[in-house]
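Friendly challenge for the regulars: who can give me the structure tokens for this chain first? No prize, just bragging rights.
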Amino acid sequence: MNKNISRSCARLHRRDFLRSTAALAAAFTAPHIMPISVFGKNSPSNRITLGIIGCGNQSTVDIPEFLKNDDCQIVTCCDVNRGSRGYRDDKQFLGREPQRDFVNKAYAKKTGNDSFKGCDACLDFRDVLARKDVDAVVIITPDHWHAIQTIMAAEAGKDIYCQKPMSLTVRDGQEMIKAVRKHNRILQCGSQWRSKAHIRQACEMVLNGKLGKLQRVESYVAENNFKGPGPGWKAEPVPEGFDYNFWLGPAPQAPYHNLRCFYKFRFILDYSGGQTTNFGHHSNGVARWGVGDDLFPTEFEDAGSEWPEKGDLFTTPTKVSFRAKFPNGVELFCHTNKPGFGVRFEGSDGSLEIGSSKFECKPASLKDAVLGGNDKRLRVSENHYRNFLDAVKSRKDGIEPVETGHRTSMLCHLGNIAMLLKRKIKFDPQTEQIVGDDEAAKMLSRPLRAPWHY
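First reply, four minutes later:
Bragging rights claimed.
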């Protein structure tokens, strides 16, 4: 890709882009596919080649998980940051080159070939999409990039593992669904809680009335783990090796500050929805699973949320607190009043509370409830990453397909809108539109900075 592409962010129409990069794709040599002896029966012909797009904090979780699977191979790591500190943990040195080196070292150890260099690094995600030797992409970029990268990946014929939250806006999610379905791609949203056995067991208990009549769901998300600089913050010079303009992409132009990027982007509304969408995608996604994925709230209302001081760089809620009501009368209360994040279901005959590894019932005997032959059963996935790879091979949706990821993200977005406006909003799940409130309805989408577009 031309060295000036990142400065101009010149974006061709997607069809033109794919056509113009055909020669570029042909120019790439095949990845250093590891010998069949390393992977047993998984020959190069049935191995899934992956491109990692986004090499920040979450990549330290996702990359090792994919490396565990012998029927896939990571062949490229892409990020606008060459390599630096400044992520969630200052000890972390992350970016495209550090993660490329991590992958190559892992494969060198697996193959016994210390000189293994089968994974390369690049700055521009479009270079990844142009490669014919990449079957699927793993999108781990900030939320404001998810829609454009997913749409372009689908049009390029790539399957997609997209980290949660799936979208930045409701419109984002709608456009992602269109692209994925139009081009017959697989998309797995990366909220791993649907691949945890105890989470599935708890939701099956709720769905089958083991708590009696479901009355209320409490979804709690962690408090912000970083504070903004407050009013009066000043712009800083962009670090060497970091293409800040490309990082901004479709988001509004804004001066650089180290707290704007990398891990902390999630506390700025231009790029994320804060903990409402970050941890909230986990807990609210489980709440939806237990209430029933076919149901969606029709009312959202602020319940005492708090926000940063005006002029602070950080703009997402410092205290999440909103209520939503499902058509069957069940109330969802999402908040940051408890440490960590999890879900509590309350029924007429008891309650249960679940977290990443937590599973508590009141009365305790509820945990021993046995499902009958006619009871509802949920899909089984023992590992979220393995489930995605199996979906790519079978061409059947995984445990969290694009529509599921969209609706969970949409619930979180609507909660943020209600908290921002400090009033009740009504929502039509069929049309996916806010009813009777023009100001709120405009918040379902945002303009994209030119030349980026859906």
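The first strand starts at residue 48 and ends at 53. The chain has two domains: 5-140, 197-235+242-377+402-442. Your move, everyone else.
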